[in-house]
Amino acid sequence: MDQKELRAWEARCVQDETPRCTAACPLHVDVRTFCGLMAQRRFDKAWQTLAKVLPLPSVLARLCDAPCKAECVRKDAGGPIETGALERYCAQVAAPALPPKPLPSRRKTVAVFGGDLCGLCAAWELARRGFSVSLYCGVPGGSLLNLPESVLPQGALERELENLDKLGVDLKRDTDLTMALLDSLAESRDALFVDGDAWPAGFDNFGQPDELTLGTRRSGIFASPAGQPSPVLRAAAARRAANSVERFVQGVSMTTSRQLEGAYPSRLFTSLDNVDAAAPVCGDLCPDENAALAEARRCLQCECMECVKVCEYLKHYKQYPKVYARQIYNNASIVMGTRQANTMINSCMLCGLCEVVCPEDFSMAELCLEARRSMVERGKMPPSAHEFALRDMAFANSDACALARHAPAAESSDYLFFPGCQLTASDPDGVQAAYADLCARLGRVGLMLRCCGAPAHWAGRQAMADQSLSTLKEEWKHLSSPRIIAACPTCLNTLRQWLPEAEIVSHWSVLRAMGLPEGARSDGMVLAVGDPCAVRHDRAIREDVRTLLDRLGVDMVEPELTGELAQCCGFGGLLAEANPELGRLVAQRRADELAEDFVTYCAMCRDRIARTGKRAMHLYDLIYPGGAEPGSRPAPGYSDRRENRTRLREKLLRTLWKTDQSGAEPHEAVQVVFTDEAARLMEERRILRSDVQKVLHYGARAGAQFGHDETGRHLASWRPSTVTYWVEYEQQGEGVLVHRAWCHRMRIKGGRA
Amino acid sequence: MSVIKVPEADAAGWRCAACDEPLVMRPVELEYLDSLFNVELPACPRCHHVLIPEALALGKMHQVEQLLEDK
Ligand code: SF4
Ligand code: SF4
Ligand code: SF4
Ligand SMILES: [Zn+2]
User: Fold this and answer.
1) What is the pLDDT of residue B64?
2) What is the per-residue pLDDT for A335?
3) Is the pLDDT of residue A339 over 80?
4) Which of A263, A412, A548, B7 is the one with CA 20 to 30 A from B35?
5) Are the CB atoms for A630 and A430 separated by under 8 Å?
6) How many Å apart are CA A520 and CA A528, to the nearest integer?
7) Number of domains making up chain A
8) Residues A116 and A242 in one domain
9) Cα-to-centroid distance, B65 and ligand 4 (Å)
């Protein structure tokens, strides 16, 4: 990612955009913060928020005609926030604030001609920018003095006139505002501003002030248009003029980059879903404090955060995509020193939910996958992040598990069943039953057991994914390119994307067309349907599955995030590998969506939800039920998953193809049992039964072991490649009872471990 | 390179099975991702076979691995 791409990513996320009220306010009052403080009864602080941006705050807060209301997001949920009423209430109760501190003197003189609201505001704005300002007027305040006490109470104007004095404005009262005076001021000062309500006769000759700059035909003279009824727009004209004067004396462009000076449209998106309508509590004024608090609490504190609301991962790192994009960019730019974002980058499930909910289609998945690929390319991917998953993938594609054959006794295949390596690992009996069913009802159905390559893809190892895929493709071609029936939604997506020449259908649509097999359960359960994240963009599958569940007599309950909005279980993107703790939180969040038992059609979703302790089943548990009660089938651990794949392959070869090909490796002969504690530790530390067998076979036999004086236990180690395994065990007859097992990646130089 | 001592490197009660010797603490070089550390670890005084105790593997050693991996 280069600077330009970073900026494009950042620009996409609107979370930092100005709230619509502030953007619509010609003076850009921070209405959101103001309302937040008002709601907390922090009136003095709220007042400071106003006084920071409003000229003559005690006056303007009382006169503000609140054009922000037209844009307030709340307007479609009961009515806009009555900002004007809140400002007035605040002006009434808050402690007065000091005027802003002017910037250091610029040694430039500006005259303000006319002291109605606009002139006073202009003097204020110019003085705080460091100009020496003299204000020429008759009676300061002009038409403001005609306002009733109820609108502008006694003292409010006086206070701000004192503040103008503190700002250093030289007030020339009782001045006759003639054209002659104007001419002489124009000669003697660096710039001149004319209040629209004080235009002397003949001033029209300078033409109407320019809309953008408020400049007139005469260089250095700026003016507000006459007859502007809105007080806040009069103040905004004053600010615009002050900005122009500043540009003018600096000699810079009068016109560039001024789009954000007045009101502008904001891109900030704020959802009204889950927002109850609430009507305004205050009208033009807030009757009392309670009303003011209630009104302020109606403010939605507008922000986007749509993606963060639905994604545990985005929430976990406490920011939002715009910030993450910058962190990822910085992470990649670090040459020396510690990278902070590697785990963050490797924790995205690449599930695509953010993109669906984001008003700007921001895809964190794309960003993170790209970052992973680049880390792999530059040799910066931490080895421990995905190695275990990639070894598992290699195992699923090894001779121990993989298989590609026509149906028994068939010479060709009309279809090829592709159950996927995780379904095979989770429920080998279900896969066997499904294959038998397909063969019985569809005729010539070949079988391919292997991994689709998704883990390599997720790990950012595109070369590895390509290689796995090209083997798959070769074998598929070797079977004369039959139509593929895929059971796993992730396989389906992966194959559709990378093997576009193949015709691929889901097992669910096949079952929908063929009807349910005999023996499918139909005992009217109430189940929460959990769509896997992989079917987010595949409505057809989701409908096939619901049709099947309906035919199974299942009463379906849908979680709030379903279908296109389905959450990932934590397997996606290899989150559970790179960040197991977060992986557990994610699975738990999904398990907690609904109280009902869970049914899904992805083996990983089912196993990961089952691991949280929730009763969860795969559609196969209902369609191809084994002996066990469907919700209670255990979620096999890492070793059992491998064993399930190996055994299934052997069993099918033996029973269907009548070949015995169990080419057991020597270490597999080691008889080993585990204490419960050992089994638990191994699962947590991702140590496989076969790792232990290798330690015992190769390590212990090579004499690399220790003995304990008191317990009589043995300790042996072995390093097959990048990880050293240690096994503490006890000899039991022919076999071995394992008490503890641990591992590390660091190597003893020149040693055996 | 100074030798690092770690309290987790305790291997009381273990002896080398091949040499039948109780273990002693010796400086050992550990390497990971192009970094080298000199650590005092329990080893057989005769054949120098090193023992990495569980507490060390999962504690300090794991921390350093993570650090070197730039997590
Ligand atoms: S709800 Fe609050 S933050 Fe949102 S636009 Fe209205 S005033 Fe501004
Ligand atoms: S986990 Fe899914 S929703 Fe969350 S950021 Fe990654 S792709 Fe988006
Ligand atoms: S949904 Fe997320 S990424 Fe999209 S604009 Fe909102 S905060 Fe930014
Ligand atoms: Zn020895």
Assistant:
1) 87
2) 64
3) no
4) B7
5) no
6) 19
7) 6
8) yes
9) 28
Q: Which domain holds residue A365?
A: 305-378
The pTM assigned to this predicted structure is: 0.86
Tokens encoding A199: 């235009």
Residues A130 and A193: their CA atoms lie apart, in Å, by 16
Residue nearest to atom 2 of ligand 3 (CA): A307
Helix, strand and coil percent figures for chain B, each rounded to 5: 20, 35, 45
**Predicted local confidence at residue A523, as pLDDT:** 75
Q: Is A12 among the domain residues?
A: no
Q: What is the DSSP letter of A203?
A: G
Q: What is the pLDDT of residues B13-48, one digit of tens each?
A: 999 999 999 999 999 999 888 788 899 999 999 999
Q: Do A749 and B28 touch (CB under 8 A)?
A: yes
Distance CA B52, CA B11 (A): 8
Q: How many A from CA of B23 to the centre of ligand 2?
A: 51
The answer, yes or no, to whether residue A753 has pLDDT greater than 80, is no
Sheet of B4-5, strands arranged across: A747-748, B24-32, B35-43, B4-5
The alpha carbon dihedral of A528, A532, A538, A541 has a sign of negative
Could you tell me if the CB of A236 is within 6 A of ligand 3?
Answer: no
- Closest CA–CA distance from residue A584 to any residue of chain B (Å): 19
Per residue in A115-124, pLDDT (tens digit) is 999 999 999 9
Q: Say whether residue B19 is in contact with chain A using an 8 A CB cutoff.
A: no
Mean pLDDT (whole number) for A204-229: 92
Tens-place pLDDT, residues A497-555? 999 999 999 999 999 999 999 999 877 799 999 999 999 999 999 999 999 999 999 99
Strand order through the sheet with A705-708: A672-674, A735-744, A724-732, A714-718, A705-708, B14-16, B21-22
Q: For the residues A320-331, what does the mean pLDDT come to?
A: 94
- Name residues with Cβ closer than 5 Å to ligand 4, which is an ion: B 16, 18-19, 44, 46-47, 49
Identity of the residue in B51, B54, B65 whose CB atom sits nearest the CB atom of A706: B51
User: What CATH number is given to the structural domain containing A590?
Assistant: 3.40.50
Query: Domain ends where: A378, A410, A440?
Result: A378
Phi, psi of A708 (to 5 degrees): -100, 130
> Span A695-717, mean pLDDT?
87
- Rounded CA separation A193/A535 (Å): 64
pLDDT at residue A661 above 70? Answer: no
Residue A205: inside a domain? yes
Q: Sorting pLDDT into bands at 50, 70 and 90, what band is A173?
A: very high
Burial (0-12, 13-18, 19+ Cβ within 10 Å), A137: buried
Decide if B54 and A744 are in contact by the 8 Å CB cutoff: no
Residue B1's pLDDT band (boundaries 50, 70, 90)?
Answer: low
How many angstroms does the Cα of residue A19 sit away from the middle of ligand 1? 7
C-alpha of residue A339 to centroid of ligand 2, in Å: 21
Nearest to B29 among A343, A728, A749 (CB): A749
The answer to whether residues A62 and A167 belong to one domain is no
Residue A320 within any structural domain of the chain: yes
**Are the Cβ atoms of B30 and A749 closer than 8 angstroms?**
yes
- Asked whether residue A384 carries a pLDDT value surpassing 90, the answer given is no
Put simply, the answer to whether A745 touches B65 (Cβ < 8 Å) is yes
Q: Is the CB of A14 under 6 A from ligand 3?
A: yes
Distance CA A134, CA A123 (A): 8
Burial of B30 (0-12, 13-18, 19+ CB in 10 A): buried
